[in-house]
Design brief:
Layout: E1 2-3, E2 6-7, H1 14-17, H2 27-35, E3 39-40, H3 41-44, H4 50-55, E4 60-63, H5 89-100, E5 104-109, H6 120-131, E6 138-142, H7 150-159, E7 163-165, H8 175-178, H9 184-197, E8 202-209, H10 215-227, E9 232-237, H11 254-266, E10 270-274, H12 283-292
Helix pairs in contact: 5-6, 6-7, 7-9
Length: about 290
Amino acid sequence: MSFGGQVTQPTLPDWIRGRKIRLGDLHDVKRRMRGGGLHTVCEEARCPNRGECFQHGTATFLINGRVCTRSCGYCSIAHGRPQAVDSEEPRQLAEAAVAMGLRHVVVTAVDRDDLPDGGAAGFVECVRLLKALEPAPTVEVLTPDFRGDPACVDRILEAGPDVYNHNVETVPSQYRRVRRSGRYSWALEVLRRVADRRPDVLRKSGIMVGLGETRDEVVAVLADLAAAGCQVVTIGQYLQPTPEQVPVERYWHPDEFAELDAAGGALGLTVFAGPFVRSSYRAEEAFLRVLNR
């Protein structure tokens, strides 16, 4: 939306405005991360849940550096030419998981299209070291699309993660504007590959709303995900992290999220939907819910 050449956004509704981040809750986990030279996607992507998660001693580890080779319209993670991958990163991550007493560890990464394997080796080593711990936590990987290369997905699966997460992020009509370097077909193929090769591994994906999509488009994506073998879907409100990212087109009402939850359930999906739901939010709960149903 625009007026006089300036972009305007819809008024922030009460159910969004009411969420406050308590910065005091962040410091302990941040100290542990910095001490090990680690970073979290919670901070880099300015997740609105980071205070709650950090207060409970959980975080989503960001590997393969802090600089992404892509520049997606919704994301505030730094992009450009990244440095070489730190070979000590997996060991530091495993040590942090022990120090934090984590039962469920989520590992994600920036896109590394500059590397022959897209950064898959980093995931492999992290999963291997985490699974060697005693007791071993459950491990969730949230990977890039590896530009459609199934060999990268296979390598990570061989390491033995418990959950494989790859986000479609948005509906196909918004990919050119929001996820310029990605392909909707690549995202679905990652999930399909996991379902075919390792049906015992939980498949998960996520989508943002508020970027200009329609309800019918979101429901169509849920159907595509179910057909690809996905089991868990997170649906949350897009919140513009800085003025440099694409603006919010509209704020979905909590009742609309409940409708999406029901639509996904009718397709056999376990759905976590709400304004502040994010891909790794309550990740252990999602894993246990599917495991025990």
